Amino acid sequence: MEVKQVFPIFEEGRILKRDSLDLIRDYAPDFFSLLFREYGDGVIAGFPIHGDGKEIVAGPGILKHGPSFFFMKEEVRLKFDLYGQVVQVVLRKQEGSISPDFKTDCWGLSLEPVRVLGEGEYELGRFLLEQGARLRTREEYKDFNDLTTEFNTLNPVYIPYACEGGSTLAPFILRLYGKGVLRSPKAEPLDLSFGVACLNSPYLSAELIQCYLAAREQDLREQNSHDNRDNDYLYQGLKRLYARLVSGGEKRQKPRGTGGKTIID
Known about the structure:
265 residues; 27% helix
């Protein structure tokens, strides 16, 4: 299915049209360019995915692609029949058009078997849906561990969210991590600080998450051996820590030299 975005073009000698003024009212390119000029490509906001096994629905959202922004203002419905295989929702840049009055950007939205995406292609989530089942989405996640269950759950790990210098994990993924860690009696000060940042910041850069993983796991050789530090790499690192802090394994360290006692001066 093709989704279009229309831009007004103003040149001397042309008649000013009401439709052009309406488009200015709905779209402020200069504002967004200034606000997000340091951000990499990816989702800025929105694009929630849900479905009932017959249709997959993508909600409105904003995407940054190079210096431009794509606004999908209405939800798009896609017929679904790819049962029994992992499917990804793909938003793809297509060839646009220019007329004397308007510039039109075209984007395609499709459901495809999982593959490596190319330039101008963005994943909005992936899932493996059983026939007759309903797709579980972000409003229904119980905790951080519930993000990547095998069947009938939207996996948001591979959605590239735009942030300064590149892309990162979806903010709601990090909020689930932060909530779990802040409730854990095993969390160290660094975990607590990172958890607060997860809940308090709209976006955490991939660089910050990498630094947290390197410091917390204290295994720089493992960190440096991973050449492609993509979303899956970030998520797997957080998943290891979450298992130790929330699900068991690691204990809070005793203060050095005090035998675990608290000293008050």
